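Box S1 | Example of a co-folding query
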Amino acid sequence: MGFNFKKKYGQNFLTDKNLLDSIVSLLGVTKETTVLEIGPGAGALTSAIARQADRVVSFEIDHDLEIVLAENLKEYSNTKIVFKDFMKASNEEIESEIGTKDYIVIANLPYYITTPILFRFFEMENKPRSLTIMVQKEYGERMTANAGDSEYSSLSVLTHWLGNAKIVKKVPRYMFTPAPKVDSCIVHFVFGENKYDKEIAAFIRSCFLMRRKTLVNNISSAFDISKDDAKKILEKNQLNSGVRAEDLSAEVILKLYEDVKNVLNV
Ligand code: SAM
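Box S1 (continued) | Returned holo structure for S-adenosylmethionine
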């Protein structure tokens, strides 16, 4: 393609037509759907989506892809490429480029920006309907893990709190050009009713602060709360004082947040 892949932008491209088409079918795109894509690369996924969707608006950081994308997308008048670092675009700018509040997101992202991009959408006021993101396999496992699983973490609870996430496809490293050192998976996330709240997010993170510590210890060291009060909160919720956050569902952790808030009187 006459293009030098840039490691600094996580440029590992997909080319397998069957895989690209199966990703598009997972998106549930129809002729009414507007899709926001982050990181179109050479446009292989972009064109597969454009064949099924109403519009695709893609943000690409690398201006060197301008000629490649212009050539590869010339048949698709329903595509628009915005050459800009997605992380530097304001919400207003993103909304104005998309032109509608009803859209879905697809992103085959470089792994180093998975978390900032995910939380960018988690924290947005006008959220997309869904996020379908290619992530490192272990990251997807952490997002979708349930209480008691070895991968269960604050990311799992944050994800369960805000919606419903599922691994919809495993993508081995050899499917990419050039092949990265790790395997990937595609996570489909649908937003629920809960709105992001900084305080709740901080509480969830503090529950998992020291993995080997009990919840009583984590809560009392993160907040101005005695161990006795922390134990009383657990008792009130029929939990024993040696419990760890990794054993508790998102619902129980959110309930504990309400009780901690009451003790702190905030
Ligand atoms: N979607 C293509 C595919 O599936 O073959 C390319 C995926 S590649 C893993 C990631 C793409 O994201 C690259 O094209 C890279 O230049 C772009 N990218 C990296 N950081 C970005 C950012 N902050 N904003 C927008 N695009 C970015």
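The mean pLDDT is 94. The beta strands are 13-14, 34-38, 55-60, 79-83, 104-108, 130-136, 163-171, 176-177, 184-191.
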